[in-house]
Design goal:
The complex is a heterotrimer.
Chain A (H helix, E strand, L loop, with lengths): L3 E5 L3 H12 L3 E6 L14 E2 L8 H24 L13 E5 L2 H16 L5 E3 L1 H7 L9 E5 L3 E2 L2 H14 L3 E4 L3 E6 L5 E6 L2 E4 L2 E4 L5 H8 L6 E10 L9 E4 L1 H7 L6 E8 L5 E7 L10 H14 L7 E12 L6 E4 L6 E5 L5 H17 L18 H6 L2
Parallel strand pairs in A: 1-2, 1-12, 2-8, 4-14, 12-19
Antiparallel strand pairs in A: 3-7, 4-6, 5-6, 9-10, 10-11, 13-16, 13-17, 14-15, 15-16, 18-19
Chain B lengths: L3 E2 L14 E6 L2 E6 L4 H7 L6 E2 L6 E2 L12 E4 L2 E5 L10 E3 L1 E2 L9
Parallel strand pairs in B: 2-8, 4-9
Antiparallel strand pairs in B: 2-3, 4-5, 6-7, 6-8
Chain C lengths: L2 E5 L3 H12 L3 E5 L29 H13 L3 E4 L2 E8 L3 E7 L8 E5 L3 E4 L3 E4 L11 E2 L1 H11 L1 E2 L3 E6 L4 H10 L3 E7 L3 H8 L3 H6 L1 H17 L3 E3 L1 E7 L6 E6 L12 E4 L2 E5 L1 E4 L2 H5 L23 E3 L8 H21 L7 H21 L14 E3 L4 E2 H11 L4 H8 L12 H11 L20 E2 H6 L12
Parallel strand pairs in C: 1-2, 1-7, 2-3, 7-19, 9-17, 11-12, 11-17, 12-13
Antiparallel strand pairs in C: 4-5, 5-6, 8-18, 14-15, 15-16, 20-21
Helix pairs in contact in C: 1-2, 1-9, 3-4, 4-7, 5-10, 9-10
Classes of the chains: A alpha/beta, B mainly beta, C alpha/beta.
């Protein structure tokens, strides 16, 4: 019988795990070496997307998440009341466009495949796309509308999940540093050593996003999670002229790519506060967080290609974050077969905000031995596609 | 009237005779001295509120005066987000003050 | 010829450019304004020269001499209206600037890859929030100075100057010389603290003779204009419908907490409030320079920062006034040129001596006038903390309580405090301190800092995008 759990990492995935585990009746402690919701969670746009996912296990999870979020938002609002910072869940829908002649057919093929996997993907004519987004560049060659795409305020959502976890008895301890595992003679993980003493639990869950590889190494196992950096631009407040999450179809290619080199695509949306968020870039540079002007310049150029009026808009801030990249592009929600007592909830790359609730529910179900919200096999550490990476990463 | 220009003839530093510059602010002609900021010309014309804020609909004008606070933003010749305290007035500049774009509720 | 780039043409930057040029380097001097002198020597535009401008300025002849030397030097390039918006650090620094009218849309883009860089970006006023501080007619001291010196505009007819620090005196002086009636200068600190700050080492004030004279001059000016100078008092609220009409003044205790029952109202048409200065350190942070515990740029005896080839001078290394800035600038420029040209020349001993004389001054200002925590007692729940995003104190308190967050970033993103177009320049440090106090005075521990702004200035997206197609010559990097 599993009665207690420690979650390492107080980002949105850790917060969702903590909430689900606490609601399942476990005694839960969340630790973070820094503070809650302030690393990867605080460095993204808050995407809840189905549109960028090809048919397969990640799409299955995304569809489940898309269905789950509205109810979750209501639950959290009921629990936490009006005084809590708003989660800003907005089912605004996505609009994916091709900006080149060559790009049109692949986008439409991709959408057709998604449709057969249960995605609401509506092919639009150019005039139809312009009626959804009047300021969109009319030179687009194809467009697909995805009503299931949504957006959320990622930090407030993570803080809400944590606050809810606390209400169900979880403890959140910030600024606690992990120093090593506590193992029994058989190699079963009994707990962790930290700078604030030993903590013991039946299940230890690594939910440290791009730092999960580091945490796993400290605990004595390898994990092929790597940081992949993404940059976002924020404009000054502007009258609302962008109504959906609008991106060029290059984005799908960039998300799915394993290439370490810089990839950019135009991803544009407005937020509740009136700013426009502009992405996106993906590059593997380790944890190097220095500004790269070329990267944000490329992102800016692609945004203007989608919405020409943005050229005269002021950009006031840029921020970058590290996403937990997996070599096979699938999240990891799984026990660690190499070390009993150890679990992982990580590797969502840029989809962690959206997939967090299902991840939390899946890990809680697996740990508590209850019915899982989806088939856990594709997200297992023991999956075939990860095999070479578990040995290759020493 | 609060803010006002010190007339050259009363000024102990004795500025030279000055060239004027004319701009329009929300359609009204405002005249200043060449080399003045748009903010200075507006203030000297007893215009202290340069915009209405998004959330509380309150007036804002010059605060820091040196380009740091961004409170004095106006639209100049069709371009938004111009700091009136930093932009020197040019003859014929069309300045528009406005209510800020409003966020649609949600968290503060 | 080796190149030294100087950012900022205030006292420190001018001195640095001059010294670097004298030491044999080719110099490029950038400033966001269209004139030299910085905020300290803000003056009338070239199109409106004044016969007696020195009347408004301390050290005007020094400024004129520096300006003329630089403008006539064949090895110095002065680029005005140059807004530096980013610094990249990869095998040397790359300084990105746009050149043209402020907040324009199609400015010229330039990338500088100097052999050495001197940062002399100065400081801006720090004003603590109080009810009504967002009303038009409430200004920082710097605004009153800039408009008075740069345009001969008085911000009001009947003005109160309030806050803390010796720099309130020149603000009052500029106002009276532009035609305002200053009905009082209110210093929050009490006599005992000022005495403790200023008197334990009186010889330092003697050493800083210039500074003593500068302040003595202001004091004499006050006497002449009969401006009351009151200690232990603060403006705790401003009132008016669409502009300031009156302020509430109260006595404050040694910690700056207002003393109930001492409030009274003054009718004014403008109020200038400054409680100190915030150094403009975003470019230094972008260049990878380490900071001191008080969040100034850390420098060694040669004004060298922790980033190779990057030097810093003036208010970004400590708030010490013009004379210290001039000395530091000269030293920084000298050693930056040495770094750039890989040569060693005799150290600028006179400047080093002057710097030593004024170094204590910065500490003394902080000891005598530094912000005390009791001020937050004058806040109400509806007082705006973040002016841009209109985040009030009540919602910050509520968010901190609801989330129990110890993270500045989370609270910032949760409340939007500091996320507006000024990017926390006005409220950043105040928000940090308030959130820290709300968090049982535990340090906000996520390492997020309101001073970090990789984008150092807004830029049009079209201007940024243009860079992606523009190839720049890179020295020594692929």
């Amino acid at each position: 019988m599993v009665g207690s759990a420690i979650v390492i990492g107080a980002g949105i995935v850790g917060a969702a795990c903590a909430r689900s585990l606490a609601m399942a009746g476990l005694d839960v402690t969340v630790i973070d070496r820094s503070t809650a919701a302030s690393a990867t969670t605080a460095r993204g746009e808050g995407n809840l997307l189905v549109s960028d996912k090809a048919p397969g296990p990640e799409l299955v999870m995304a569809l489940a998440a898309a269905k789950r979020w509205p109810a979750l938002v209501r639950e959290l609002a009921d629990e936490l009341g009006d005084g809590f910072p708003g989660i800003e869940y907005e089912p605004k829908g996505g609009l994916v466009v091709a900006t080149t002649e060559d790009g049109a057919a692949p986008l439409l093929r991709f959408a057709a495949a998604q449709r057969s996997a249960g995605v609401d993907a509506r092919e639009l004519s150019v005039p139809e796309a312009l009626s959804l987004e009047p300021d969109l560049n009319p030179a687009i060659t194809a467009a697909v509308h995805y009503p299931q795409d949504a957006q959320v305020h990622p930090v407030n959502a993570a803080e809400a999940l944590l606050a809810s976890a606390r209400r169900h008895g979880a403890r959140v301890r910030q600024n606690v540093n992990l120093s090593g595992p506590i193992l029994d003679a058989n190699g079963t993980l009994l707990g962790i050593a930290t700078n604030e003493g030993e903590l013991r639990a039946d299940a230890i869950i690594v939910a440290a996003g791009p730092w999960s590889g580091e945490v796993a190494r400290t605990l004595g196992v390898t994990l092929p999670v790597r940081p992949r950096r993404g940059m976002v631009l924020v404009t000054s407040r502007t009258p609302k002229r962008i109504f959906h999450k609008v991106y060029d179809a290059d984005y799908v290619g960039a998300v799915g790519s394993g290439d370490a080199a810089l990839q950019t695509s135009g991803v544009v949306e407005s937020t509740e506060s009136g700013n426009v968020l502009i992405g996106s870039s993906r590059e593997q540079l380790g944890f190097d967080d220095r500004l790269r002007v070329d990267t944000i310049a490329q992102v800016a150029a692609k945004a203007i290609r989608l919405f020409p009026f943005l050229a005269d808009q002021a950009v006031i801030r840029t921020y970058g974050g590290f996403r937990p990249f997996m070599p096979d592009h699938l999240p990891l929600v799984s026990p660690d077969h190499r070390m009993p007592g150890l679990w992982h909830a990580t590797g969502h790359e840029g989809a962690g905000i959206g997939l967090a609730p299902i991840t939390g529910e899946l890990i809680a179900a697996l740990i508590a031995g209850e019915a899982a919200p989806c088939d856990p096999a594709p997200y297992s550490l023991a999956r075939k596609s990860l095999e070479p990476h578990l040995t290759a990463v020493a | 009237m609060a803010a006002r220009m010190l007339p050259s003839e009363k000024d102990p530093i004795q500025p030279s005779s000055s060239t004027t510059v004319s701009i329009t602010v929300d359609g009204h002609v405002a005249t200043g001295i060449l080399g003045q900021s748009i903010a200075g010309i507006m203030m000297a014309g007893d215009r202290l509120g340069f915009r209405q804020t998004a959330k509380l609909d309150r007036p804002r004008g010059v605060f820091c005066g040196i380009g740091v606070c961004f409170d004095c933003l106006v639209e100049v010749n069709g371009l938004s987000d111009v700091r009136a305290c930093q932009r020197k007035a040019c003859d014929g500049d069309v300045v528009v003050t406005a209510r800020d774009p409003q966020p649609r509720g949600g968290a503060a | 010829m080796s190149e030294v780039l100087v950012i900022g043409a205030g006292p420190a930057g001018l001195a640095a450019a001059r010294a670097a040029s004298d030491a044999g380097a080719s110099v490029v001097l950038l400033d966001s304004s269209d004139a030299l002198g910085g905020q300290f020597w803000r003056h009338l535009p070239e199109t409106r020269p004044a016969r007696n401008e020195k009347y408004l300025h301390h050290g005007w002849s020094t400024f004129r001499a520096l300006g003329e030397a630089l403008e006539s030097s064949p090895t110095v390039t002065i680029i005005r209206s140059a807004q530096v918006w980013a610094i990249e650090v990869f095998d040397g620094v790359a300084v990105h600037a746009v050149i043209g009218e402020p907040d324009g849309a199609r400015r010229e883009r330039r990338v500088f890859r100097p052999d050495a860089l001197v940062l002399a970006t100065g400081a801006h006023d720090r004003t603590l929030p109080f009810p009504g501080w967002d009303l038009p007619g409430v200004y920082t001291g710097g605004a009153a100075q800039a408009l008075a010196k740069g345009e001969r505009l008085a911000v009001g007819e009947r003005v109160v100057v309030a806050g803390a620090g010796p720099f309130l005196l020149p603000v009052a002086q500029s106002l009276t010389r532009a035609g305002s009636r200053v009905i009082g200068v209110l210093e929050a600190n009490r006599a005992a603290r000022l005495a403790r700050g200023w008197s334990p080492r009186p010889w330092q004030l003697l050493g800083a003779a210039g500074k003593g004279l500068e302040l003595a001059g202001y004091a004499a000016g006050h006497v002449r204009h009969r401006i009351p100078y009151r200690l232990g008092r603060a403006v705790i609220a401003a009132h008016g419908t669409d502009r300031v009409e009156s302020v509430t003044v109260a006595k404050v205790d040694a910690q700056w907490a207002p003393i109930p029952g001492t409030e009274h109202t003054l009718k004014v048409d403008a109020v200038c409030v400054s409680h100190g200065f915030t150094p403009r350190i975003e470019l230094a942070i972008a260049a990878g320079c380490e900071l001191t515990p008080n969040r100034f740029v850390a420098v060694d005896g040669n004004q060298r920062t922790t980033t190779d080839g990057v030097y810093a001078a003036g208010e970004i290394t400590g708030i010490g006034g013009v004379d210290l800035a001039l000395a530091e600038g000269e030293i920084a420029g000298h050693f930056a040129a040495g770094f750039a040209t890989e040569s060693v020349s005799a150290p600028p001993t006179a400047a080093i001596r002057r710097r030593r004389a004024f170094t204590g001054f910065a500490h003394r200002i902080e000891a005598a006038h530094g912000i005390r925590s009791g001020w937050s007692d004058w806040l109400t729940d509806s007082t705006l903390i973040c002016r841009c995003e209109e985040v009030d104190f009540g919602s910050m308190r509520a968010a901190a309580a609801a989330t129990q967050s110890e993270s500045f970033r989370s609270l910032k993103l949760g409340t939007r405090a500091g996320l507006g177009i000024c990017q926390g320049r006005m409220c950043g440090r105040t928000s940090e301190e308030l959130l820290c106090a709300l968090n049982q005075n535990r340090e906000l521990s996520d390492g997020a800092m309101s001073d970090r702004r990789p984008l150092a200035s807004p830029l049009r997206i079209g201007e940024l995008a243009h860079l992606s197609s523009q190839k720049t010559a890179r020295k020594g990097t692929p």
